[in-house]
Amino acid sequence: MKAHLMYAERDVAAHIALPKYQHDVIQDLGLQTIVNAMAATDDNIAQVARETLLTSLSDIASIRYRQAALKDCIAHAEAVRELHDLAVQTVNAERRGFLYGIPMVGKTPGSVLFWAINLLEMLEAQLRRLRRFADQHASEFTSPAFTTLFEMLQRELSDDYLESIREHLRRLQFPNGLLLSAELGAGNKGANYVLRKGAAPESWMRRLFLGDSTGGYAFKIDDRDEAGLRALAALKDQGVALVADALGRSTGHILAFFKMLRTELAFYVGCLNLYEALNSLGCPTCMPTPCEAAAQKRSAARLYDPALALALGRGVVENDLGADGKRLVVITGANRGGKSTFLRSVGLGQLMMQCGMFVAADRFEASVCEGLFTHYQREEDPTMQSGKFDEELLRMSGIVDNVQANSLVLLNESFAATDAREGAEIAHQVVSALTESGVTVYFVTHQYEFAQSIQATEESAALLLLAERREDGTRTFRIMPGAPLHTSYARDLYDRIFGRSGEQPPTFEASAALRAREVSGGQN
Amino acid sequence: MPSVDFRSILDEEEPAAWDGSVQAPECLADLNLDQVIDAVVGADDEYELRPFFLSPLTTARAVEYRHEVMRDLESDRTFAYVTEFASAMRRVREQLAKGAKVNPLQSQRLFLDALRTYSQAIVDFGERLLNSPLNSRGLRGFGRYLSQYVASPAFASRASAADTLLLELNNITYSVHIKDNAVSVSRYQGQADYSDEVAETFAKFSQGESSSYVGPLRDSIDMSQVEERILSLVAKLFPTTFAKLAEFCERNHGFIDPAIARFDREIQFYVAYKAYVARFIAGGLPICYPEVRSQARTVFARDTYDAALADSLIARGASVVLNDVTLEDDERLIVVSGPNQGGKTTFARLFGQLHYLAGLGCPVPGRAARLALFDKILTHFEREEHVENLRSKLEDDLLRIRDLLERATARSIIIVNEIFSSTTTSDAYFLARQIVERILSLGARCVCVTFLDALASADDRIVSMVSMVSPDDPAIRTYKVARRPAGGRSYAVSIAEKHRLTYARIRARIEAAKQ
Q1: How many Å is the maximal CA-CA distance in chain A?
Q2: Could you tell me the pLDDT band of residue B209, with boundaries at 50, 70 and 90?
C-alpha cells in the first residue's frame, strides 16, 4: 500500500544525504527561513520540506503532478490537515506504546510479540478511522495524487480484512499451549523451531505422563525450579521467534505506512503553512509555469525574496525580470542596493517551482534547470588551511564537479578576494567556460572590468542589470536593466557611516570590513 | 606407491622450528620494522607468525623458494584456495575446542562436524592444487603430498562413514509441545506453519525491505537444562543413530596429520604479508620482487618508500613520496644531508628495511630492486639521554659505534642516524671522518644521515644525497631525497590551474562528466 502523493510512480526517498554544495545553497539562499515557515514547529515537516526543496524535479509532468495536488490542498486545507493529524497521532501513539511494551534490555521474541499485539490493537482502530475518512472525503478531491490515495484506502481496508486482523490477535494468545517442530542443529542443539498450528489435546499429553511411551516422552518442571522455568521460558521464546518476527514486521509495516503517509503529506502541509504566512503579509504568490530547459525561459513579475519578507514580517521590494534566452545575467550597481536579495529571489523562485510549489511572485515562468548552485563570498576560512581566494576557488571547483548543461549557477561577488585584474581574468574564464557548456549563470559583481567586457545587446545571450540609485544617492533596492557604472558607491556608504570623509579616501581596512558586512548581511 | 614426504612451505632445505625462542634482531625498532611486523602479523597473531619475520634467510636459493610460493599466490584463485583451506582448518580447531567443554551428546556431534570439515578441506584443497598451474616447488610438493594422503583407503572410508552419520542426524525432525510446565517430545507429524499465515495477512502494508524487531537469538550451541533433557529424549526416540555416533568418535581420535598442521601455520606467512602489501597496492604504490644475491656489486631500488610511514600516510589519506637509491660498483656509503624534517631519516630507514624484507624472501616497496643478502643490519640512532647514565652523550655515542664496528663485517648493512650532534662541528667532522674511513675499509654498505655537508665529498666511494625543498618556497619539503652535491630547486602553477579552473580545464571537466 503506497500513498504516492509526491511522485506518481515512487515513494519519497527516506532521509537523503545532501551533497556539500547543497549546504552552500541552504546558507546562501536563506532556505532555513523558508523551511521554518513551512514547518511551524513540526520537525518532520521541516526535514521533508528541506529535502524536497533541494531535490528539484526536472521533468515538467512531475512538477504539474504536485502543483495539482497542492491546488487540492489549498482548496481543502482543513481536510488535508485532519488527514495529516491522523497520521501524526498514530505515529506518536506508537512512540508512547513502544516505551511501555518493549523492555529496555534486548528484544526477545516474547517481548516483541507482546508489544506487537498491543500496538496492533491501536493500529487496527486507526486503520478503521482512515477508511472512514476516505469514505467521507473521496468525492471532494480532483488531483490524481489524492483520488488515487482514497481509492486505494477504500479498496485495501475492507471490513472483512479488518476483521481478519482481529482474529489473529485472538489466536496469538495461545489458549492450547505451543506446538513446535524442531531439528538437530549445530552441536545437536535444537534448531529451526517453527510454531505449528493445532496443538494436541490435553488427553494425549496425560497418556505420556502415565508411562505410555509409544507416542513420545514427557517431563514436567517443578514449580519451585526457578532455573528450569527460566530455561523453559527461553525455549518458548525461541519457539515463537518466527511468529514474533512475522508479527513484529507486520506491525512495523503498518507503522511505516502511517509514517509514510505523514511524510507524503508533510510537504503539502508545509506548503499550506507558508502560503498562509505569505498571504497574511499581503505578499503575492502564484503557481509558476515550468518550461523545457531548451526554451531558456526566465521571466517574472513582482518577484521578491520570501525569506526576507518572512524575516522582516512585511512586504518587500518586488522586481520584474525578463531574461528569456539569456545564458548570462550580470547584476552590478550600488552596494547595499538589493543585488543579493534579488539574486536570492531568483534562486528561491527556481527551487520552489522545481519542487512543485507556488512561487513568491505574481507571475513566474522559467525553464527547469539541472541543479542549482550558489557561490557566495565567505568569511575567512576558520581552519586557516587555505587563503580566502584559495578557499573560494576550492568551492568553485566543487561546483564545476557537479554542474552540467542546463544547470543554474548563482555567483555573488565571486573572485573578489584577489586583485581586480586577476579576479576579472579568472571570472572571465570561469563564466565563459560555464555558459559555453550550456550552464546559465547569474552573477552579482563589483568587477567593473569584467562587467564592462560583457556584450549585452538585444540579440546576445547576456543581460546586464543594475541596482538602481537615485541622483541624491538613495537606493530604491530595485534592479533594472542597465550598464555597469564605474564605481560601486562604497564611498557613499563610508560617508554615511563615518561622516564626510572630505578628500580622504577610506582606508583599505575600512572598505574591506564594509564589504564583508554587505556580503553577509544583505539588506539589513 | 613411493611415499611422498613434505617438510615446510617456508624452507625446502633447512626448515627451523620457528618457535617462541627466536630472538628479535636489534635493528628492528630503529628501522621501524617492529611496526611493520606488528602490522603484518596483526594484534592477536593467531598463527604465531612473528618468529618467521625475525629470521632472515641466508641463501639466495631459500629466498627464491619463497618468491616462487609468493608468485603462485598472486593468482587470485590460488590465493582464495589457500584462504578457504585456512578458514576450514580454523573451523576444525574451533569445533574440537568447543567439544571439549560440553555434554557428550553435543561433543560427539562437534567431533563429527570437525572431522567432516577437515576431510572436505583436505580433499578440496588437494584437488585444487593439483589442477592449478603452479610453479613453486613448495605448493606443488604439498599438492602431491595431499593427493597421496587423500588416496589412502583409511581416509576415504572414514569420510564416507561421517557423511552417512550426518545425513541420519539431519533427517531427524521432532515435535515439542509446551503447555504450562509440561513438555512433551515426539516425532513430528506435518502440522502447518503459523507464522507464514500471519505474514501473509499483513503483506499489503509492506513498504519494501523491513528490519526485524526481534533481536538475534543467542548464536551459541550451549544448551539449557531443559534443552539437554529434550535432547536426551530425542536420543531415546532415535536410539540406533545415536549409538553409531558414539562409536564413530571413539574410533577416530586424533585425526589431524602433523605435516598438514605445519603447513596450515606456515602458509600464513605469505597470506599475512600479501594482505599487508595489498594496502600499498591499493594506495597506488609499487611493490616488486627484488633480485636477491648473496654477493652483488651494485644494489638499487627504484621508486621505493618506507613501509611503516607509507602505511600511516595511506591511512590518513596523505600521499607518499617515492625515492630512488643506488650503490653502484665501488660505492659503499651514502651520506644524506639537507634540511631537517625533509625525509632524511626515513630514507636511511628504508635502506635497512629494503634489505631486511628482501632477506625474508618477501616482495619489497619499489618498482624494481636488486639487493644483497646480509649477515646483520646494525643501526646507530640517537638515544634519549638517560639520567642514570653517567657517561657523556658523546662518549656514549663513541662506545656504541665502537661496539657496532666490532660486530660489522663486509656483509653487514650499517645505518647511522645523526652522529655526534652533541659536539662542535669540527670535532664532529673529525670523528665522523674516522668512523666513515673504518666503514669504508670494512666494505660494508652504509647509509649515514648527518648535518656535516662536507662528509659527503670525503671519498669516491661516498655518494652524496640531499633532502629536497620546493624551489619556489624553501619552507615546503618535498620529502624527495636525491643524488646531488650537498645544496638545490621546480615550477609553480597558477592558483587557478591548481584548482583546474581555467577555461579549457572547466570545459573538459564538464564534458568528461557527461560520459
Answers
A1: 118
A2: low
